[in-house]
Amino acid sequence: MLEDMRLFATIVEQKSLNKAAERLNLSQPALSRRLARLEAELEVDLFRRIGKRLELTAAGQVTYEFALDLRRYHGGFLQRLNAFKSSEAHVATIGASLTTLQTTLPDLITAMTEKHPNLEIKAITGKSHEIATLVKERKVDFGIVASSVIDDPAITSLPLFDDHLILVLPRTHIILERTHLEMADLHGLPMILFAPGTWYRTLTDELLRAYNLKPDVRMEIDSFEAIIRLLSACRAGTLLPKSYLREQVLEDNDLYLVRIRELEETKRTTSLIHGDPAWLAPSTRFLIEETKTYFARRASQQ
């Protein structure tokens, strides 16, 4: 039908079967047969033939208007479709919560850009619910948030990895002279905590309340790097997500991880979220699959 309507519109606009056939690179008899087939299918006459001249019937006028609408819709459709034809993205916009931006995104961006040198990654940060809104409004290609499920039917949530809190201390801290540390040892312990407002700080506060612990909070800072750098100078400890604590970070700052069972039970799932799959460009679907593969590979190496 689409092709027949295109041929019919060309006949109307050329006002001649011969001229239309030439324009369409068809023979005149072949075009005549196509027109006759269309009229038979629609069960109406589209033209009145007055000598060599073609004149639209009333049904033909309605059909021509439909053919023009069809042409416009088809052109718009093809234009929108072009954005989905490349599986190699040049720019990807990722939404990330503040904690994720510091713990997860740097390594992911490095891995992605090493594999795809022409890929430019942009990041927009916000709270998890803000990232979910950006995903729904298609202002980001996908989001990475520290939430296992976004309770919204318009959002698809794909778990990437589980994280938990861990106690970090300078290797020279006097408390490490003990052979075993428990949750009770956090009571009164000088600590530097992340600034309020993120899932990570909320989880920390809930944990301290649950065990009725009141550490000696020396500072509240919204940068993991700054916290790490200040621990030795302040002779303080901190609770950080395990995902942030790379071996090199610990060595460079002479830090030690203390494993406490209750802390390892503070699990939080970091997930990739995206909107309606029907609206995902092939390049976005490709990057989502690569992101899932990256975290699956990293989990298998730990």
UniProtKB/TrEMBL annotation:
SUPFAM superfamilies assigned to the protein according to its UniProt record, in alphabetical order: Periplasmic binding protein-like II, Winged helix' DNA-binding domain
Keyword list, A-Z: DNA-binding, Transcription, Transcription regulation
Pfam families registered for this protein in UniProt: HTH_1, LysR_substrate
PROSITE patterns reported for this sequence: HTH_LYSR (PS50931)
One Gene Ontology molecular-function label: DNA-binding transcription factor activity
Domain HTH lysR-type per the UniProt entry, residue ranges: 1-57
Matches recorded under InterPro entries: LysR_HTH_N, LysR_subst-bd, WH-like_DNA-bd_sf, WH_DNA-bd_sf
Transmembrane residue ranges: none
Similarity comment: Belongs to the LysR transcriptional regulatory family.
Listed PANTHER family: HTH-TYPE TRANSCRIPTIONAL REGULATOR (PTHR30126), HTH-TYPE TRANSCRIPTIONAL REGULATOR GLTR (PTHR30126:SF40)
Protein name per UniProt: LysR family transcriptional regulator
